[in-house]
């Protein structure tokens, strides 16, 4: 199930080609993307994100205490 959630988050961030960097920070996924317009905030929330903050090519996805596991799972998918 965690892999499904990771895959959904990766897709909502615009896919693996759009993600430059992703790292966990306590309860958030901090991401840098190539094209911020490819971010689908509704899909991120549908995947379980509690909140999304995006400015330009920098995105923070609030996912709770599973941030470390999700970041690792997303890296495995890339």
Automatic annotation (TrEMBL):
Top-level EC class: transferase
Positions of the catalytic residues: 25
EC number(s) recorded for this UniProt protein: 2.7.1.-
Alphabetized UniProt keyword annotations: Kinase, Phosphotransferase system, Sugar transport, Transferase, Transport
Source organism superkingdom: Bacteria
InterPro entries: Glu_permease_IIB, PTrfase_EIIB_Cys, PTS_Glucose_EIICBA, PTS_IIB_1
Domain PTS EIIB type-1: 3-78
GO molecular function, one term: transferase activity
Protein known as: Glucose PTS transporter subunit EIIB
Organism: Saccharopolyspora oryzae
């Amino acid at each position: 199930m965690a892999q499904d959630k990771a895959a959904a988050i990766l897709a909502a961030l615009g896919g693996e080609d759009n993600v430059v960097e992703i790292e966990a920070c306590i309860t958030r996924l901090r991401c840098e993307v190539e094209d911020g317009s490819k971010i689908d905030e509704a899909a991120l929330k549908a995947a379980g994100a509690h909140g999304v903050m995006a400015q330009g090519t920098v995105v923070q996805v609030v996912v709770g205490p599973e941030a470390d596991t999700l970041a690792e799972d997303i890296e495995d998918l890339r």
